[in-house]
Amino acid sequence: MSFSWTNRKVLVTGATGLLGSWLTQELVARGADVTCLVRDRVPRSRLVTTGTIERVNVVHERLENYEGVLRAVNEYEIDTVFHLAAQTIVGTASRSVLSTFEANIKGTWNLLEACRTCSSLVRGVVLASSDKAYGEHATLPYTEDFALQGRYPYDASKACSELLALSYATSFGVPVATTRCGNLYGGGDLNYSRIVPGTIRSALHGERPIVRSNGQLVRDYFYVEDAVAAYICLAENLRGLDLAGQAFNFGTSTPKSVLEMVAAVLAATGREDLEPEVQNTASNEIAAQTLDCTKAHEVLGWRPAFTLEDGLRRTVDWYREHELGGVS
Q: Are 256 and 104 in contact (CB under 8 A)?
């Protein structure tokens, strides 16, 4: 029997973020009845600017409030959950450790407990973890059986959220699986401290892009529309393939250094003449992270559809329209 999203009741947390806005838009396009748990009003979010917010139910609530999370799951009779909401910026997490742990760890156990309580409703939960949960390893790329040894606040919070997911899956049968993605990029990312949107905005305004690290950090950069397809693929196969308690790496497996990525972004904007300003002030960053996505390929039949060049072209087009009003 094929999986259909038509009229399926779906909860998306973190729907105003980069991935959340794209995922919500796609779920609505597929006919799902989507409810979004939203903490802040973000008028520039793609959720708002695309008009998607007018086609979903919106619950204004904080993940840290269990009763509010439970109400959203119960009253909207949620069948499938995409738990994306988190404090995701490494620098912010290091400055605001307590609020990061409250959102990323307590928020996750509140969400999982609500799903356990409403087990007669919830048939699938996809929880966003991160490649940062792995921490530093001497051998790369990461495979899903690597130990989770995140040390810095954001990294540790994601490792904790995964242990909670495994506990709920094993102890209570909550049908939850986790994703470990590379660094997401795409149109609509309003966190300009990240290298892709920050570099694009600088290039479009003829300014030197800022590199806060030493430029040598290695990451797997992952286009947002590929990530949306990955999340949906995992949700569609979660119960049929009995994937509760499992984790999946999603990425391109073609890592780039920060300076290589900056060069690719500048090429996509046509501003190769701009020299990045390397500040080397970043802290609490892992030197190199690369993902082995063989499990996703073999178990789910998923593969990325966009090359780096394709993804950056589409991303630059979005920022050119929104930063410059469509002016080249």
A: no
